[in-house]
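Notes from the 1:1 (GR / supervisor)

We went over the backlog. Supervisor wanted to see one worked example end to end before approving the batch request, so GR pasted a single chain during the call. The sequence is below; no edits were made to it. Supervisor asked that the structure be written out right there so they could see what the output format looks like.
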Amino acid sequence: MRIHVLVGVTALLVSSALASDDIALPHIKVFGTAERKVMPNEMIWRIEVKNKGQVLAEVADKHIEIVKSITSHLKKEFIRPDDIQASRMELGENWEFKNQSRVKDGYHAMTHISFTLHDFGRYRNIWVGLAALGNIHVWDTFYDHSDWNRIKNEIETEALLVARQKASDLAKAIDSHIAEPLLVEELPPFDDFGINDEFGDDLSEDQETSVHPGMITIRARIKASFRLVTHN
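Structure output shown during the call:
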């Protein structure tokens, strides 16, 4: 006799294929999750540089000088050249809405620059220096960790062990046990980028007056299926 048992929302016991990833064997399917809080050691900045004018050549020349000033400032603050990237460069007509109509008002040049800050103690100097240059809009900053991939791989292994233990416990509850794995699948975490949810305690005095990196949470989710063996 075939038996179908539904256990909670994370485990399913079936004896025939019910979906594309189901296996035509008695098995138990579970989801395992794991997370780790780490102190970030990188801050990613994304800034927009934009200037306008009535003469295209002058706008282009001024833009080049502004971008050079920015990269020079960043290098003085020990931002490595390979941690600075310019992209989405634009040069063209500048259109604006005036009196409920779209009108041409000279020309504009724009570049997006991203860079990675490793020494959080230099946050204030970079911020003040960028503000002094003008024509700059800081549109995003976020924390990261240089060893993110290694940590994520370790957490995925932990999530898989959680899934196996969960499957074993559920099988035991119905007088069965699990055998070999039939499916292991990595799932996107609920929050791919982690969250800043705690304030760190090991900041220097300079850092405390400028930036609080807190802690970021790295998460992993695993879906796994194991063959189910019922005791005689």
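Supervisor's comment: Residues 42-144 form a domain with the Alpha-Beta Plaits fold (CATH 3.30.70.2970).
Batch request approved.
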